[in-house]
Amino acid sequence: MEIPPAVRARGITKTFGEVLALDGVDLDVAGGQVHGLVGPNGAGKTTLLGLLLGLAVADSGTLEILGSPVGRTPAVPDGVAGFVDGPGLYPSLTARQNLAALASLRRHAAESTVDVGEALEQVGLTDVADDRVRGFSLGMRQRLGLAAALLTRPRLLVLDEPANGLDPAGKRHVHRVITALAAQGTAVFLSSHRMDDLAALCSEVTILATGRAVFTGPVSKLAAEGGDLDYRLVTTDPEAARRLAGETPGLGVVPGPDGRRAEAEVVVHGPAAALDELVVRLVGAGVALRELGPVVPPLEAAFLALTETGAKQPADLSALSEKAGQEESR
Ligand SMILES: Nc1ncnc2c1ncn2[C@@H]1O[C@H](COP(=O)(O)OP(=O)(O)O)[C@@H](O)[C@H]1O
Ligand SMILES: [Mg+2]
Question: Given this model, what pLDDT does residue 95 score?
């Protein structure tokens, strides 16, 4: 029997008054896959995840979750757990009491549950299990929210910006939990406004930009979408490197990322094949290469190219900074 996809969405549209938050979104999340949803603030990530959690219904389009069509009344679909906009917790209860309360509700609903202590252990909150949630940091609340979602052994876990507020140790716990869940066949769909948060964790990503899915597919394919990149070279002879780069077909010498041209380094722009040619020429001319790498990592470059179309054109800068201002205030 074929395993149904965890999520199958076609033409999902959602408006809030005048705002078109989701604009014809198509999406497939396979079972047992960690799928990332990335986009700038206001792109529609929380809105989309909210639909999957049954917090709202789409205006139009079709949505199937774990093989079942989603109805017209908001309800949490079977087998799904997660949260948007931070988990709902009782501040005056301890971490353990919060989970115990949820577990007893679910036992009442006859769902199979994971042991509370085990869930706390998995997210690394054992040491603070008996502290009141009131004093928890954002990162600790996020991890407790994840523990709460684990209680039901979900087949689809939906997490909205789970990396927010996490310190490196917290991030490691969350990564470990997500990877282990996926290995057991749970699909995880998680959002972030930062590409680098997702790159390490996800096999597939969907990029949202103002309500539209501008890319969906394997992370490896996304890296190729960014087109030509800027590369930074540190050599034993920057003057010669600059000259050789200028002579290499397909390559251009560009100012560094901050517009300043650091003395020891050269920044070039072009396809990878032209860069290969430059390296061969450098070595041939007796110039040694000490460092070479993209100025912006390929995934980040692809994300920026897909979500900030026209950002490099000076005419659009005023519109862009206006938009950035609006996003700040959200
Ligand atoms: N409940 C709501 N009422 C009105 N507008 C909303 C509501 N929720 C979201 N929006 C708007 O929909 C758009 C998408 O928001 P959201 O899904 O929260 O984006 P993201 O999570 O990617 O930052 C934004 O323009 C936001 O202001
Ligand atoms: Mg959001």
Answer: 95
Class of domain 7-224: alpha beta
Which CATH superfamily is 227-295 part of? Malonyl-CoA ACP transacylase, ACP-binding (3.30.70.250)
Residue in 12, 19, 191 to alter for ligand 1 test, most ligand atoms within 8 A of Cβ: 19
* pLDDT at res. 258: 60
- Ligand closest in space to the Cα of 48: 1
Domain span(s) for CATH 3.40.50.300 in the chain: 7-224
Distance CA 127, CA 150 (A): 18
Indicate whether residue 44 lines ligand 1 (CB < 6 A).
yes
Compute the distance from residue 26 Cα to the ligand 1 centre, in Å: 18
Q: What is the pLDDT of residue 85?
A: 83
The CB of 43 under 6 Å from ligand 1? The reply is yes
CA 89, CA 92: separation in Å to the nearest integer?
9
CA of 48, closest atom in ligand 1: 17
Q: What integer pLDDT is reported at residue 87 of this predicted model?
A: 83
Q: How many Å lie between the centroid of ligand 1 and the Cα of residue 46? A: 7
pLDDT of residue 214: 94
Q: List the beta bridge partners of residue 188.
A: 34, 157
Which segments of the chain belong to CATH 3.30.70.250?
227-295
At CA 320, angle to CA 314 and CA 326, rounded to 5? 160
* Ligand 1 within 6 A of CB of 152: no
| Tokens 């007796």, residue located | 286
10 Cα–ligand 1 center, Å: 20
Given a cut of 70, the residues of the chain with pLDDT beneath it are 1-2, 107-113, 256-262, 309-330
DSSP assignments along 72-118, one per residue: SS--PPTTEEEESSS----TTSBHHHHHHHHHHHHHHTT-----HHH
* C-beta separation of 158 from 121 below 8 A: no
